[in-house]
């Protein structure tokens, strides 16, 4: 696991709190990947995919070409450009599950199992799941034993050991 200086990882590597970002140690190699994050406590946060060149101490992510992330305000950013936005009235709240699919071209988002129909793309190269937190946000990562069934054709990330 690679994490920012002030990020705290608890609950057997599944809960992220503090300030900064955490990059999973398993790249998204298979064609269609799915993973989930549960919003335990709101604040400033972001989830998505990033390359190993991402700056884990600089939040929010999405400001350069190394990350493609959904931010807590519903915007999806890559290279300092808003690529898409969650539909109005569907901002993730405390207790919500945000599912992420990635097929090497497009990232799609699911809120409590429902497709939000807001695809975003643009990131290039080998990417990894990423999450960042700030301002009291607490996020739990789910890389298996999902709350919701992955969309057709998507599967959990193939990894050898613990992911964070």
TrEMBL record:
Q: Read off the Gene3D superfamilies from this record.
A: 2.60.120.920
Report which superkingdom the organism of origin falls in.
Eukaryota
- B30.2/SPRY domain: which residues? 1-148
Do you know which SUPFAM superfamilies this protein is assigned to?
A: Concanavalin A-like lectins/glucanases (SSF49899)
PANTHER family given in the database record: C13ORF1 PROTEIN-RELATED, SPRY DOMAIN-CONTAINING PROTEIN 7
Q: What is this protein called?
A: SPRY domain-containing protein 7
Specify the species.
Answer: Carassius auratus (Goldfish)
